[in-house]
Structure formats: structure tokens, C-alpha cells
Automatic annotation (TrEMBL):
<keyword id="KW-0732">Signal</keyword>
<protein>
    <recommendedName>
        <fullName>Lipoprotein</fullName>
    </recommendedName>
</protein>
<feature type="signal peptide">
    <location>
        <begin position="1"/>
        <end position="23"/>
    </location>
</feature>
Length: 132
């Protein structure tokens, strides 16, 4: 009897832990709210460039990224090794590429608190970030 109770508690605990990661990943890739507005190139420069921004991957791993003023990019996903890449901005779209992860081109939206990187072609949210 005690064994069955302990087993049930362990299963519930593990299920709770796994759903938290899934919920964070879902939230980090949800659409921006209707009041979010697209940033211009100069606003992207002042809001995003040179500042660390943090989010969660689609699979639930925390990561941080910095797009440096010199056009280089640095990303650290959970316990993986640090990856370097580059970014370029064309009009109001910023493209970031890493050898390991590929290239993404995004519009940047904000509600004044957080930012969303939204795919410039599909209009799907790639990530919701907090900026430090």
C-alpha cells in the first residue's frame, strides 16, 4: 500500500515538473497581444542591440542571447556550449544566424514590457523575450 502511494506521488511530481517546462515553452512562443507594436530599426537598436535578452526554447530550455553592436551574436542555451553568430538588420527586420541553429529573420514587437521576435514571413512568434 505505501509503495503504491509513493509511486503515485512520484508520478504526479514528475508530471508537474514536465508540464511546467511545456507551459513556459508555450508561453514563450505565443502570439504577441493586440496592443504590441512593431519597432522601427532605430527602436530595435536602442531596445535590443547590446542588451541580453532571455527566453525559453520550443522544447523548454532556458536561454539568453545578446546581439552585439558590432554585428556579432552570442547565444547560450541551457547547458549547451556558447554559440556565436551574426546579425544584420534590413529596414525593420533583424536576421540572426548561427551555424548550429540556422537563420531567423524577425520583426520585433513590444508591449512596452517584453519583446517578441516574430518571423518576418510566416508571422509566427519565434520567441518572447525579457530584456536586461
Amino acid at each position: 500500500m505505501n509503495r503504491a502511494i509513493i509511486y503515485s506521488l512520484v508520478v504526479l511530481f514528475v508530471a508537474g515538473c514536465s508540464s511546467t517546462g511545456h507551459e513556459a515553452a508555450t508561453a514563450a512562443h505565443a502570439d504577441a497581444p493586440p496592443n504590441a507594436r512593431q519597432l522601427s530599426a532605430s527602436e530595435i537598436q536602442s531596445t535590443v542591440i547590446g542588451r541580453k535578452h532571455s527566453s525559453v526554447t520550443a522544447t523548454g530550455y532556458a536561454f539568453s542571447e545578446t546581439l552585439n553592436p558590432d554585428g556579432t551574436a552570442v547565444i547560450q542555451i541551457s547547458s549547451e556550449s556558447l554559440q556565436t553568430g551574426q546579425w544584420i538588420m534590413t529596414e525593420d527586420v533583424i536576421c540572426v544566424s548561427y551555424k548550429k541553429y540556422g537563420k531567423e529573420c524577425n520583426k520585433v514587437l513590444t508591449d512596452g514590457v517584453v519583446i517578441w521576435f516574430v518571423d518576418s514571413v510566416s508571422n509566427k512568434t519565434n520567441n518572447k523575450f525579457t530584456v536586461k
